[in-house]
Amino acid sequence: MVHSTSANKCLKHLTIAAAYPECFSPLPTDADLVGILSHVRYEIEQCFIIPKHHEHDWHLKESVFLAILIHARVLLAFFESTDRRLDDVLCSDFGFPSSPVSIPPDDRKRFNKDIAHLTYSRLRHTPETKPWPVFEILRPLFDRSVSFIRHILAHPPNGADELELRNWNALLHLLSSNKDA
């Protein structure tokens, strides 16, 4: 019997879902949206609120930027994905349309390949191209995140906690006041 790769993936996902039914739902419930809201906010905070660090400590600076880029990668999938894989959280779950974030193609390729994969394509970098194009990656993601925050505040999930919504409002205020920083 011949199975297609996509059929095998679907079978694997169905097997995992059958083993852990409490973790998987075809569509998130209102309770799921309310429960995950703070986790989405956490990803945005970790991506755009840069902790104080010593600029001259290369290892610390690299660690801070790597953490930021990992959270950025999570947000990119959140904003761009149109197909749910297992229990992925999608921006469309909240009524916010998913669409491509306009990151330049070379930066996107690097973002996808170099952030968490040890590949030979890293050899393409010279000392001049080695530094991460953080601004080029984060700027369009920042704009999309602010739009999403405004959407959440205008259209909160049914049953959203007032304290959580105040946290979202505070995040919007913080990001808006530091937009050009």
Strand content: under 5%
Oligomeric state of shown chains: single chain
Give the tally of structural domains. Answer: 1
Coarse structural class: mainly alpha
Helix content: 55-70%
The end-to-end span amounts to 59 Å
Helices and strands, in order, run as HHHHHH
Average pLDDT score: 84
Measured on Cα atoms, how large is the radius of gyration? 19 Å
Shape: globular
Give the number of DSSP strands: 0
Descriptive report:
The chain is mostly helical. The chain has one domain. Helices cover 57% and strands 0% of the residues. The chain has six helices and no strands. Helix 3 crosses helix 5 (134-154). The protein is globular and about 50 Å long. The chain starts with a helix and ends with a helix. Mean pLDDT is 84; it is low at 1-14.
Short description:
This protein has 6 helices and no strands. By secondary structure, the protein is mainly alpha-helical.
Highlighted features:
181 residues; 57% helix; mainly alpha
Task: Give a topology summary.
Layout: H1 5-19, H2 30-48, H3 58-80, H4 105-114, H5 134-154, H6 162-177
Helix pairs in contact: 2-3, 2-6, 3-5, 5-6
